[in-house]
Amino acid sequence: MAKEILELEYHFNTSSKVLFPRLSTAIGLNEWFADEVNEKDKIFTFRWDSEERSAELLAVKEGRSARFHWLDDDDEESYFEFTLSTTELTDDLALRITDFVDADEASEMKELWDAQISDLKRVLGA
Question: What does the DSSP assignment read for 34-48?
Answer without folding.
Answer: -SEEEEETTEEEEEE
